[in-house]
Amino acid sequence: MKVTIDEERCDAHGVCVSACPEVFALDDDEDVVRVLDENPDESLRESLFKAVQGCPKAAITVEG
Amino acid sequence: MTTDATAVKWPAWEDAAFYLQEPDEMYASIAAQRHAAPVYWYEPAGYPTGLWVLSKWEDQRFVGSHPELFSSRFGFAIGDASDPSTVIHQLPDWAQEKIREGNLSPAETRRAIAHGKLSMGDPNFESLMISDPPRHGQIRSILMKALRPSLVRSLKPRIAEIADEFIGEIEPDAEVDFVTTVGRIPAALMTDLIGVPREMRERFIEMASAQMQAITIDPKRDPAEAQRINKLVEEFHSYCGELLADRQDRAGEEGDLTSIIAGSEYDGGPVPDGMAISFMHTFVNAGETTRALLGFVARALAEHPDQRRLVAEQPDLVANAIEETLRYYPLNWSGCRTAIQDVELGGQLIHKDDYVLMAYASANRDEDVWDRPDEFDVTRSFDKDHQSFGYGEHSCPGALLVRTDAGIILERLLARFPDWELTSEPQRWANPFLQGLGTVPVRFHS
Description:
The structure holds two protein chains of two kinds.
Chain A: E1 2-5, H1 15-19, E2 24-25, E3 34-35, H2 45-54, E4 60-63
Antiparallel strand pairs in A: 1-4, 2-3
Chain B: H1 16-19, H2 23-36, E1 39-42, E2 51-54, H3 57-64, E3 70-71, H4 84-87, H5 93-101, H6 106-118, H7 135-146, H8 149-154, H9 156-168, E4 175-177, H10 185-194, H11 201-214, H12 223-249, H13 257-262, E5 265-266, E6 269-270, H14 273-303, H15 305-313, H16 318-328, E7 334-339, E8 343-345, E9 348-350, E10 355-359, H17 360-363, H18 399-416, E11 420-422, E12 427-430, E13 435-439, E14 441-444
Parallel strand pairs in B: 2-10
Antiparallel strand pairs in B: 1-2, 3-7, 4-14, 5-6, 7-10, 8-9, 11-14, 12-13
Helix pairs in contact in B: 5-6, 9-10, 9-18, 10-14, 11-12, 11-14, 12-14, 14-16, 14-18, 16-18
């Protein structure tokens, strides 16, 4: 799987961080979510899906 | 509860009276349509053309994430599709002329109405609400400098301080109006952040509320009321203009939100006045939205005392209680887009230029997304987001601020008063775009 974030869209709501902390991170002083792992393990598919579904800005893309 | 779908009247999405029914009645009507016709061609009485009503969460998410298929340029609210002759008097001269000249397609007419009502009289006004990518992103990025997440999160101690100050003034065991006590906290915060002096606070909020009314086109609005609104909007415009000019002169030394906008650039020059003022309106609107939301929080937690006790005992649930209130009592009923090519959705062919209404209030009760959708449950999972702030490019830029603000205020309130009751029915208001509570009479127990 390949994970990307549209940084222009991201409003740093942090929903993805709660859904999938293995892949996304955000500190209080940051304005764009960081992708910790662009090619996460298959076992994270379900929580990644939650992150995609939960993002209010439709800013996350998962390919593969 | 079982409802015979054929016996239930389907929603009159364009009519304020529909939204003022008892919630159970209204949601039964919305559910009947969602079950029988999730993508429905609706022809509102008195409207020049029909529009599509999307009731399902999934379909609304599709539209929200595809601005290249569904444009915001040709209106964003149901009222924008009104028969122009019924709303033309609410528009500035240039928009009236454009409509009177004729030759406009239905989509162009909606644009003239939406653009006219947002423009504050300036035909060159560029609006965040009725723009598409990439323009939309450019405009939004200026606004988001002022509403950036790191800044919003840094406000937490300040919000708590203001909240404690206002909550400290509430007399226990006396009947008070929630809206004019706790509900004043967000406006106090926002006007401080904007840089409005204390003595101007109430007047500023009054002007800003008029601006909010002005962007909601309602053919049934009384002409005297429309005139009062227009006058206040003009005043709002000139007051914001003065504040912006002052901050430009002082080159950002005030450190407030107005300074951030005054110091920003658009297309290589200063942010145009109209756009800057619309941003200031967005700020104060975030405060008004939080106030409206808190009114519903007060109501929902009074109606569900077991849930209130749960949140009071487990402050970790505060954020969830805010989300559940947003889902259960959405402030914004719906949002609209225009198809820019033929698109098939839910087995229906939506034609180019057709107007599409995303019924957020329906998606928030969609059985395919929510277990027991008609129950208020603060422990509910929000793996999937409700639609109350919209979705995608155009989702509410103030959402994080509203959530943060409301969350801290509720937490501080529960710490001081874990127990309150409604002393009489809250007074509701609604138009076809928004709802709120005029008063929420409560008694906080000592």
